[in-house]
Amino acid sequence: MAGIQQLSTKHLLGIKYLKTEDIRLIFDTALNFKEVINRPIKKVPSLRDITIANLFFENSTRTRISFELAEKRLSADVVNFSASSSSVKKGETLLDTVNNILSMKVDMVVMRHPAPGAPHFLSQHIDVNIINAGDGTHEHPTQALLDAFSMEEKVGNLKGKHVAIFGDILHSRVALSNIFCLQKLGAKVIVCGPPTLIPKHIHKLGVGVEYDVKKALAWCDIANILRIQLERQDIKYFPSLREYSQYFGINKSLLQQLDKQILIMHPGPINRGVEISSDVADSDHSIILQQVENGVAIRMAILFLLAARKSEARQQGL
What we know:
This protein is an alpha/beta fold. The protein folds into two domains: 15-140 and 293-315, Aspartate/ornithine carbamoyltransferase (Rossmann fold), CATH 3.40.50; 141-291, Aspartate/ornithine carbamoyltransferase (Rossmann fold). It has eleven helices and nine strands. The protein has a five-stranded parallel β-sheet with strand order 7-6-5-8-9. Strands 2-1-3-4 form a four-stranded parallel β-sheet. α4 links the parallel β3 (108-113) and β4. α1 (20-37) crosses α11, α2 crosses α11 and α5 (141-155) packs across α6.
């Protein structure tokens, strides 16, 4: 892997820690891997000697499958770990769990954890590459990267483009990573949702706040719609799902009132009939399925670039 362009960071803990040049390198590499996954033979030997552990301390379907597919497309050896069937249930600490797995000579760790900062904690205690697959309500960097990559495929360079993020901003790790990523790429960002689901000081991140869905849709070029995360809500933030849908749901009628066509995105899983109607999710406006396909290519790029950086460091004796 010598001679390959390098990321500026050893880990992917959050978009906050990436440079714009890192994002561009990931996108360029993902373009190459997108060609690979659309071939009849979808596998390359790039990570043939690398062992990757997927540590998911939270339930996940799409992200876990996407990472596992990316790893197997790169010919890596894969170890899957689920907290629900592990010694964590018996009281084992996070560090002990990971150290036990690392004793099996694992090279990289992909981790999802309900506690914000868990991947950062691990990165300070173990000497392998850490990829954050979502930490609590903090960040979900690979989702933001695949979202921005998908946007650029459709509308070109994002500099000056208007992106509105709708929904449960308060509990969403996707929203924060998207804000960081879009701003690094020069896009203008607003958030839209009920006042109870908008963080009080979010304007300090340089984003606008809009409570009127019609105004937000009229302003934006791209609408990224987030689901209502009922599993993270310890109190009621709005009267009912029906009322949320009535005032903040995106439906075909709203889009038909616009004098332009906007791009519709959703990181999934979709609560159809709540934050988005089926006729919007399945419409020509939507690139939701392209997001899923691009997720594999983006994750292949990240795994490949981090492994290349590790290989280079070893050769230099670092």
